[in-house]
Amino acid sequence: MKHLATGLPSDPRRDLGFTPTAIRFGLLGASVFFLGTLAIYLIARTGQIDAHVTSAQGLERIRMPIWFWFSTLMILVSSVSLWGTKKFVENRDPRLARRAVVAAAALGWAFLLLQVPGIRALFREHALMADQRV
After folding, report:
1. Which residues of 14-45 are buried (b: 16+ CB within 10 A; e: fewer)?
2. Of 42, 97, 124, 128, which one has the greatest count of Cβ atoms within 10 A?
């Protein structure tokens, strides 16, 4: 493949359409958000937050909906499929790479669809807890 402006051979690793720095900042932002959320959750569980903000006793009763375990499995299998896509591309097998991308996309959609009943279950649990406090 030749570079459009110079006509010289281009490095396929450079033709990503995005900069690696932007990806690093995005991953850093997502990681900081996750760690901040985890820290707040752990602080609330230990009762270190004012009772007007949250109730540590109430947090102990919230159960993780089973839907989230299934969606976690979907996203992990999707990650393996994406890793396989990379390997198939490196081995120059476009047929298997295409199948792996389709599988990863389907698993990604399954992940998103499984989030909906999980979030609904959390809202139901919250509503039940709110009714008990009144």
Report:
1. eeeeeeeeeeeeeeeeeeeeeeeeeeeeeebe
2. 97
Distances (CA, A) of 51 to 19, 59, 72: 45, 12, 32
Which pTM was predicted? Answer: 0.52
Beta bridge partners of 2: 9
Determine phi and psi for 61, rounding to 5 degrees: -85, -15
Phi, psi of 19 (to 5 degrees): -100, 140
Q: Evaluate if residue 21 carries a pLDDT over 70.
A: yes
pLDDT digits (tens, 9 = 90+) for 76-113: 888 888 888 888 888 888 888 888 888 888 998 998 89
